[in-house]
Fold each of these.
Amino acid sequence: MRVSIKAFATFRNVLGKERLVEIAEGEDITDLLNALCNSFGGLQDLLFDDSGLKDDVNILVNGRNIQALNGVQTKLADGDELALFPAAIGG
């Protein structure tokens, strides 16, 4: 299966603007993020802290926030589009 990843802000510095990733059938957000962390140095510290996915990391799958879905256990399907960006802070 192929999943498209669009990265923004600090994530774009590590992953690039957009990339297609091959994943196995039945994989979820956690599987994908772990694979990306293994391939891209520095990504682990941007995404995770001791308690899991950092609170200031936003992930959308096909335009829907994963918090409205199954969180990091959200299963991915062929052709899904994942957007990865930090929370906007400031005013």
Note: The chain has three helices and seven strands.
Amino acid sequence: MVHIIFGACLSAAKRKRLLISNPMEYVEQVPSAGESDHGMVLDADGLRRLLDGFRGTVLFPIVATAAFTGARRNEILALRWSDLDPVNKTLRIERAFEGETGVIKGPKTERGKRTIGIDGDLVALLLTERDKYRRLQAGVPDGADVDLSLIVLPEDALMFPSPLGASADLTRPRSPRGITKGFAYQARKLGFDGLRFHDLRGSHETALLDAGEPVHVVAARCGHDPAVLLKSYAKWTKKADMSTVATIGKIFKGILG
């Protein structure tokens, strides 16, 4: 946008013979790749129906975390229990699982490192999940009356470790590809054809924007640039459009009457 305005100013100066030529005319133009498309979004009702459909499955805690935080799949797979602060209801996101190498490392940019607030319902869900792994770690059967707070998980224990190594190695990450395939299969069974796990991120961001949250706040929460958020992730929803129609009606009330 800046280069377009600057070029227009130089063109005006050339027409008024204040400049012999417009240097912007010699700048090589980069072909546009077209509008970025990061999939589809679900409104609040759609997200609720999706989560209800995943309830009781092994993917439910992961899907719920994605829907409630807008975090990327590989960021969620790299979360540790030490990243959760249940008292202050925050979640620290500062690393991601790199599927190609199998290495967990820091984010590509500083924006990717962030601490976000989370809803009390998500805190409760995660604490229930943590207790499950405490039982596995100590070999405590379900239903046994034990003070689980006395069971200490390893410092680098993952929130969502590989199911195959859950009872022995809580630091072994899940397969990102397995998450993607499992999500798509269950979503399709629920009637959400074509919905991808990554679409939960755009759904989270769009829901916040539709609710009136500032762009820079939503972008910071999800770890990317505000311009990228608006161009690639925020999507049109019918409910938001109808709300816009109501707003237009209030602004222009009586003008056409």
Note: The longest helix spans residues 120-138.
